[in-house]
Amino acid sequence: xxLQIIAVTAGLGLVIAVLGLTVLWLLxxxxxxxxxxxxxxxxxxxxxxxxxxITMEMIIDGxxxxxxxxxxxxxGLVGIGVALVVARQxxxxxxxLVTAVEEVPATLDFTPPQGPLPAELRTIAHALDQAYARxxxxxxxxxxxxxxRRELVAWVSHDLRTPLAGMRAMVEALEDGVVDDTATVSRxxxxxRLEVDRLAHMVxxxxxxxxxxxxxxxxxxxxxxxxxLVADALAGVEALAMAKGVRLTGDTPPVLPVYxxxxxxxxxxxxxxxxxxxxxxQDGAVVVRATADDATVRLSVADACGGIPEDDLPRVFDVAxxxxxxxxxxxxxxxxxxxxxxxxxxxAHEGAIAVVNEGPGCRFEISLPRAASPA
Length: 375
What we know:
The chain contains 8 helices and 7 strands; from the N terminus they run H-H-H-H-H-E-H-E-E-H-E-E-H-E-E. It is an alpha+beta fold and 375 residues long. It has 3 domains: 2-102; 152-213, Orthogonal Bundle (Helix Hairpins); 222-369, Histidine kinase-like ATPase, C-terminal domain (Heat Shock Protein 90), CATH 3.30.565. The two termini are 70 Å apart. InterPro entries: HATPase_C_sf (IPR036890), HATPase_dom (IPR003594), His_kinase_dom (IPR005467), HisK_dim/P_dom (IPR003661), HisK_dim/P_sf (IPR036097), Sensor_HK_Regulatory (IPR050736), Sig_transdc_His_kin-like_C (IPR004358).
């Protein structure tokens, strides 16, 4: 008898379950409320079918059978009613969440719907809040980058027009024979060569900066000593320092390793030193130091520029920024790209770069993880 009851109930339940799954598949694109209602109907129908089958065929007869069927029918209706109420609440909560998303303003400030939500929808609302926060941050970065691009175009356009206009005037003077004495002709040729070198350096900086912004900077890290890195950087700018009358000093322990791309990190350090020399007055000093602790190495470049206004400090590494209120640029000024390139190279090494006012000028500092075996 027990086996027969189990067989009949399982058979009817299987048939109803297959029918229910078929209906759910057909309604898979419909509202979650409809799907919950189908699930409730399938559950109640399977229970009712089993009870009715057993009642009609095997166990109960007469008035008790009518009572059982009535109770089961009422229980089924109650179950379906509760399922419909729950489905309606879930649908209402879902619509509140959809409305909150549709009402997100152009500023991407997402306001989660008020009132209680089911746990899953509350999790979705929290995830949406975080996603919109990331979108806001991305938009702010994009706007800042776009502003930097515009500023860069303005700066570079100015810096390109000035030397090109001078070279055109000198070339026209040479072509027209306005200048024919040997000394002036030689001076014009030297000036044209210097301007061409400057423009080539500017184009090289623009190419490097575009690689950094595009994420195309490819590093070839290896274990290098900071002493050699500092020595190479100082040797490369020694002529500029002598011409400016600035003293260069390097203070680096002989063995202080770092895992980095020597060429790119050397360029970043050289940009900082060149920047320091350009803004240090004659007879001033530029000091390059290297220090380390257990996990970090630091390269610092201290100058005698007279300091940077506090309001300008956060913008020092922006593209094309020139703190002319604190640093009056001379004829050898760059295009304002050196510090932005240095920051990009340092960040590509998973390091950090900062600047503070200190003593007679300011101090730029590069922080990098200490050398370890390659991963």
